[in-house]
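Researcher: I'm preparing a figure for a lab meeting and need a structural model of a single chain. I don't have an experimental structure, so a prediction will have to do for now. The sequence is pasted below. Please return the structure as tokens so I can convert it later.
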Amino acid sequence: MITVAIPTYNRGAILVETIERLLALEPRAGAILIVDQTREHPADVDARLQAWDRDGAIHWLRLDAPSIPRAMNDALVAATTPVVLFLDDDIVPDSQLVAAHEAAHANDIHWAVAGQVLQPGEEPEDFEGSDDLEFHFNSNRARLITNVMAGNLSVRRERTLSIGGFDENFTGAAYRFETDFAMRVAAEGGTILFEPRASIRHLKLSSGGLRSFGDHRAVASPAHTAGDYYFALHHVDRFWSYAARRFAKNVLTRYHATHPWTIPAKIAGEVRGLMLARQLFRKGRRLRRVQDGNRP
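Model: Understood. Here is the structure written out token by token.
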């Protein structure tokens, strides 16, 4: 049995549509857990979610502040099935999405299964390239990989909790938290299967979710930048070389050449992200261990 877990933030209308699609699947998940970080929904959305929760069609968990890794960890702790399937809140699932994830976990070999993700305008492609940061998640070839996208990712619950789940130090947009998780799985000897038959179409809405943190090209907030620097502090040997390349790649862009007034804010965002990442790194990881209890 699989629990579908959907972290969601400021996307009530599309969340309702996604839930409707998931409830129509055959077979469908054993449970649907909505980890809701939205402060307040429109009245019609709130009523619909309450009705589904009251009828047992979903389990509606409310959080007091947005955090993608925390929401996913809370879902892991709250779930009661061996496998938890994380999905974005703005998707169109393939009719066999749940069945394909269940089949991929049937032999209990893999710690995680990453499904196919088709972004707007994409179709499946015959991709046989790198298995790491350059992997194309619209590939139609099953294989082992060392990177994941959390918008279509199923994990063995107990194994994931045994390594602390997802690192909650990835703040704001939490960039790279998925890759960090994949690399920690590999370090423990676990494997991750890419299964293209477990497919979704990602609608990639322009509002809500990560877009709530503003345009990464023009904000002074560290919300979009701290994650990459924090990831590098843990996984990259030559950190300062990596940081310098990242800074140049993200500031010396065509966008900033044509929008020069955004450069000061972007530089501030990079510097603040670097400072925050170093602070979080010194404090140590924020992981969710099994002994932390069985409730969020």
